[in-house]
Amino acid sequence: MLYFFKRYQKYLLILFCAIIIFVGVYVYNKSNTITTSNDEKLTVTEEEKETNNDDDSTSETVFVDIKGAVNAPGVYELDTKKRIIDAINTAGGLTDNANTININLSKKIEDEMFIIIYTKEEIENYMKKQDVSEIVCASYECVCPDSNNDGCYKNDANKTSSNTSSSNDEVKVTGKVSINTASKEELMTLSGIGEAKAGAIIEYREKNGNFASIEDIKNVSGIGDAIFEKIKDNITI
């Protein structure tokens, strides 16, 4: 055995070195493969992040001007998916005396939209001036002190019904009560017209047909010249 080792010592050393080199190369290549795989995963992750950031950067925004009874009125940049209620919240929310009865809170915002939130006093005073009540607003025939207020229900109705000529659309545009089609509740919004007189108006037109002119309302029992003078500017046929 000793003789064999001495005789082939040179070859054994070469074989041993070859084995060491082979093992070293194998370990190195395996380690490099793992590192490369991790680098590729990291690169993919970074690319995904960049893609997500690009998607976020392409999100469209618009500018909205909101005034009135909000805590921080001003011009705000908002995502196009937002609605008027989101614009209000961005502007600090409603003040304690705000009234949104005539504001379409669910309406999607648009670029250069102008929104006014009115106070309770402003709505009350305007309703008195126009001789309408919240009963009318329940049908979206709401008063809107400013024709350029993009948030109002009434302005939405005027824009979408500009090509129609029904009596209901006429009421929305003029703010007047049609004595031929109005319900008892709508008639009661007129000055001097209570439940009894409103019922008498409806009973009269059911028996005699539609009024030919607003002056014909004086034919109804209990409605004379004095009451007619109060309501003539607020009624239509």
UniProtKB/TrEMBL annotation:
| InterPro entries in the cross-refs | Competence_ComEA_HhH, Endo/Exo/Phosphatase_dom_1, Hlx-hairpin-Hlx_DNA-bd_motif, RuvA_2-like, Soluble_ligand-bd
UniProt-listed SMART domains: HhH1 (SM00278)
Which domain of life does this protein belong to? Bacteria
Per the UniProt record, one Pfam family is SLBB
Alphabetized GO MF terms: DNA binding
**CC per GO annotation:** type II protein secretion system complex
| Keywords of this entry | Membrane, Transmembrane, Transmembrane helix
| TM regions (residue ranges) | 12-28
Q: Tell me yes or no: is Transferase among this UniProt entry's keywords.
A: no
Q: Where is the Helix-hairpin-helix DNA-binding motif class domain?
A: 185-204, 215-234
Q: What GO biological process terms are annotated to this protein in UniProt?
A: DNA repair; protein secretion by the type II secretion system
Q: What is this protein called?
A: Helix-hairpin-helix domain-containing protein
